[in-house]
Design a protein that fits this description.
There is one protein chain. The protein has twelve helices and no strands. By secondary structure, the protein is mostly helical. The protein has one domain. The longest helix has 33 residues. The relative contact order is 0.14.
Length: 265
């Protein structure tokens, strides 16, 4: 019995190793494809969030009454939400778009939505560089709490990955989800305090926004990057709790649905 357990453990370890190698290759391929026809190449991943920030600052700054640096406020919220939206939107069609590979090669199908998430994580890294540049240009300090960002980022990745697994599995069976999710993300974005302050809203809005998962991820990130304050234990645990819950739900739906992927893709 012990020998069987050891053999099974080795088998799982070997499968994880193989999947990790394949995942890395997928991410590299996605990144190359992303910059293939771009003159600016990787520089665009830094310019894109900066340009979007400038647009939002131009449009919304006159309505903002907080005594904080508005560009930093906007960019920190935008890049957090955009990572979740971008990675899940790309992952949504990943199974169907790679049906040729799935039909011909024996491969772990969950690697496709995972590759979409980790590809967008690279873009998030460049957006983070853009945020640091904005902070420096604004002559604001870079706090030591910035060192906690990688830990916080784990919870955001968990949430995005769980949602990516859920959406990619559902899209195989219900193709209309692609259009519905696009509309939902627009509503979700405006329901998240990216360019408006929660404290300026009516009490009923303040209560309602706390049911928005991205509110917590954005708030914790701003606490670390803009305020230089470690978030309270409740907020951190909630972020990891939501990430774990989404991983469980998304993983369960994906595992159940993948049994018949081959029949629908």
């Amino acid at each position: 019995m012990v020998a069987k357990l050891v053999a099974k453990t080795k088998g799982i370890g070997e499968q994880i190793r193989k999947d990790s190698i394949i995942l890395g290759m997928m991410v590299k391929k996605n990144i190359k494809r992303l910059f293939r026809n771009s003159w600016l190449g990787v520089i665009w991943t830094v310019l894109n969030p900066l340009l979007n920030m400038l647009v939002m600052v131009f449009v919304f700054s006159s309505f903002f009454n907080r005594a904080v640096d508005f560009p930093t406020y906007v960019l920190s919220g935008y890049m957090t939400f955009n990572f979740m939206r971008g990675s899940t939107s790309q992952a949504l069609t990943s199974i169907v778009n790679n049906r040729g590979i799935i039909n011909k090669v024996k491969i772990s199908t969950h690697l496709f939505p995972m590759a979409a998430v980790f590809t967008d994580l690279v873009s998030y890294g460049f957006s983070f560089i853009a945020l640091l540049l904005v902070i420096l240009v604004s002559k604001r300090p870079i706090f030591l709490t910035t060192l906690f960002v990688p830990v916080y980022l784990i919870s955001l990745i968990m949430f995005s990955l769980g949602l990516a697994l859920l959406l990619s599995a559902l899209y195989v069976y219900f193709r209309d989800i692609k259009h519905l999710y696009g509309v939902f993300c627009t509503l979700w974005m405006y329901s998240t305090p990216l360019f408006w302050a929660v404290e300026n809203m009516r009490p009923i809005v303040q209560s309602f926004v706390q049911f928005n998962p991205m509110y917590w991820y954005v708030t914790v990130f701003r606490s670390l990057m803009q305020d230089g304050v470690m978030p309270d234990a409740f907020s951190v645990l909630l972020c990891f709790g939501m990430g774990a819950a989404m991983m469980i739900i998304g993983g369960a739906v994906f595992r159940f649905g993948q049994k018949k992927f081959i029949l629908y893709i």
